[in-house]
Amino acid sequence: MTALLPSQLVYQTGAEVFWWIGPIVILVVIPLLDLSIGLDGSNPKDEYYDILSNDRYYRWCTYLVIPIQLLGLAIASAMWAGDELRVADKLGLAVTLGFVSGIGINAAHELGHRAEHLERWLAKVSLAPSGYGHFFIEHNRGHHVRVATPEDPASARLGESLWEFLPRSISGSFYSAIVLERTRLARKGERWWSVGNHILQAWAMTVVLFGALVVAFGVQVLPWLVIQALFGFCLLETVNYVEHYGLLRARRSNGMYARCSPRDSWNSDHLVTNIFLFHLQRHSDHHANPGRRYQTLRTFDQAPQLPAGYAAMIVLALVPPVWRRVMDPRVLAHYGGNVELANILPRKRNRILTAHGATG
Fold first, then answer.
1. For 337-349, what is the mean pLDDT?
2. How many CB atoms lie within 10 A of CB 360?
3. Is the pTM of this model over 0.85?
4. Is the distance from CB of 209 to CB of 129 less than 8 angstroms?
5. Span of 106-120, 151-165, 189-203 with lowest mean pLDDT
6. Average pLDDT of the chain?
7. DSSP H helices in 25-161
8. Please, is 67 exposed, middle or buried when counting C-beta atoms within 10 Å of its C-beta (0-12, 13-18, 19+)?
9. Mean of the pLDDT values across residues 278-298?
């Protein structure tokens, strides 16, 4: 709802800080609520699985993100096109809408995992404001296959800062999506420039959306649309950074990676962030069982636990020394003190092994 609130809050209170309500809610209010309300480690009972999975209330929670997202973007575009706001206020509104687009990517993440044709199309629509349509391909067929391995661009490595991770993950995920979709099309005997190309379908939705807003409100809205898209997909990639930092799947005797288990994703049972992010923090169960709908995800004792919810961990990730002080010992503890079992940033590998008395 932060997509729709800024103008009314500023109008009612006169406080221009509300143009920045998106980052205020996500980076300040939600972490404080997590801290005060705490954890919910309860799991849905197995006998309720089918009832929960088929309860359409939970589906509509993801569906409704999309019209709110698009309406908020249209309202913001009308304000960006006018002369009433200062540049700083327009920037705050762009950042707020960017955070909304980031949450929209999370809704797309849930919808994109479903087998239903409608939900998979809605996932592409929800990705349109962020211009990150290739996520639809890379996440399902790339990240879920290679998660918690050095080959996965979206799995952060021990010793890697967020600012190193972002360009690697953004570029690597883009390239991986292109390769995966090109391979799929070739297998079907289709060319890249075909209507069956899922990436082009998703990107076309962004072009149509941005084009319609430019036609309606003028070309001056385009830079602000780009800024909100940038913040949207950077928020997604920051969450990716948190989800698998330093974790590495075990290898079988044949050299192949073992099946993804709950031990290969950071988990969090902080209640408030789980509500706002469709239980994304129960990430261990999601990767171990990607077919489960978000309302049925469980917490596991063997899953490594974050010290705070994703919202608070995003704030920590922005300051690499603080992040390393908090998270590196937890990675080490997760592997029983054996740092060689972690996914280590290659250029820091020798330094990290030496620091922990390992030989590599």
1. 94
2. 10
3. yes
4. yes
5. 106-120
6. 93
7. 30-37, 49-54, 56-63, 65-81, 87-112, 117-127, 135-138, 144-146
8. exposed
9. 90
